[in-house]
Amino acid sequence: MEDPRYEIERTTHKTGSTVHLHLIGAFDRDASRVLRTGMRDAFASGRRGLRVIVDVERAESIGSECIDLLMVGYTRALRAGHGYEISNAHGHVRQALALTGLVEPDTLYAPVWADDLNREISA
């Protein structure tokens, strides 16, 4: 069996308020299960004010299944009042993410206060 061509390094800020997911390698269909688990675990604390940063600097490529998971992460962050950012996209990965709006104009960012804004709008 061949070793996977992808991995996710997870680092957590000492206060636990920020989780960094560093995507490394080719994130195609085979990697979607691992990315789904990584995203679920990053949001697992459910604490208000949590910030998740997905760093794609070392991602060589990204497939539609993984792009979909990144979009789901953004939606989840907005709904739960978490911060969310996809950072350091370049090359083919940036082009793929730009088609969905995930990195345009610079980075997609769901500020931690988004939930408060949603409550104001619906009031």
From TrEMBL:
Pfam families: STAS_2 (PF13466). Residues 21-102 form the MlaB-like STAS domain. SUPFAM superfamilies: SpoIIaa-like. Gene3D superfamilies: STAS domain. It comes from the Bacteria. This is MlaB-like STAS domain-containing protein. It comes from Actinoplanes couchii.
